[in-house]
């Protein structure tokens, strides 16, 4: 008997292999998003004009707005220019991926995998592997920013320090530093699960509503989920920026703060 109803699959489904490497439907969706972003970047940036039109003018205004915000946050134009590609790419990839979730061919195109029919495309951020990969990139960039700006010794002093006016104070500072290190590592979990949980829960909710109230109800809910997808992209990018700001800030009392002022 053919099963009917809502099927919730937590893990991404395999649709094939390439050189013995499993290819999942979220991976195909991620490739599609990257191709679309690369094509869009090529079209937008191939022929900038000295006297910009409306489209180029709008794009330049958005870039200037983000750069100015990053400059105010990082208190450095050089750092803003350095990390703008990372923050902008994270936002564009996550938001575009969330936009693609609402395209009609997501979930409707299927392929045969083994004895089952599985969707060819699956929302990118409903795969914990993808959100974890984004988290690894973000956390690596944060640590790189701290080390490259402050130096390994000064940056490591945030986590391993025995400074203090007394033995008790030194012990306390040492354990506070260890807690800071644990907090740094835990960002991998918070970054990845926050994005995964919100997007996956939205997909399940949309499926449930579409099953019981298939016509009018899903439309406003889809608009809400689109808004949530936009907010999640902003949150991920903004947290990356703010944590970079924390990473490049010298520890209190460090001589590095005087030798390397924040303003460029």
Topology:
Blueprint: E1 14-18, E2 21-24, H1 25-45, H2 54-74, H3 77-100, E3 110-113, E4 116-119, H4 128-150, H5 152-156, H6 167-212, H7 218-247, H8 256-259
Antiparallel strand pairs: 1-2, 3-4
Helix pairs in contact: 1-3, 2-3, 3-7, 4-6, 4-7, 6-7
Characteristic key phrases:
single chain; 264 residues; mainly alpha; two-stranded antiparallel ribbon; 4 strands; 6% strand; globular
Describe the structure.
- The chain is built from 8 helices and 4 strands; from the N terminus they run E-E-H-H-H-E-E-H-H-H-H-H.
- By secondary structure, the chain is mainly α.
- The chain has one domain.
- The strands form 2 sheets. A two-stranded antiparallel ribbon has the order 1-2. A two-stranded antiparallel ribbon has the order 3-4.
- Helix 1 crosses helix 3 (77-100), helix 4 (128-150) runs parallel beside helix 7 (218-247) and helix 6 runs antiparallel to helix 7.
- It starts with 13 loop residues before the first strand and ends in a 5-residue tail after the last helix.
- The model is unreliable at 255-264 (pLDDT under 50).
Rg: 23 Å
Uncertain segments: 255-264
| Estimated share of beta-strand residues | 5-15%
Q: Number of helical segments?
A: 8
Order of helices and strands: EEHHHEEHHHHH
Q: Average the pLDDT over all residues and give the rounded result.
A: 80
Number of domains: 1
Largest sheet composition: 2 strands, antiparallel
Question: Helix/strand-derived class?
Answer: mainly alpha
Q: How many β strands by DSSP?
A: 4
Distance from first to last alpha carbon = 69 Å
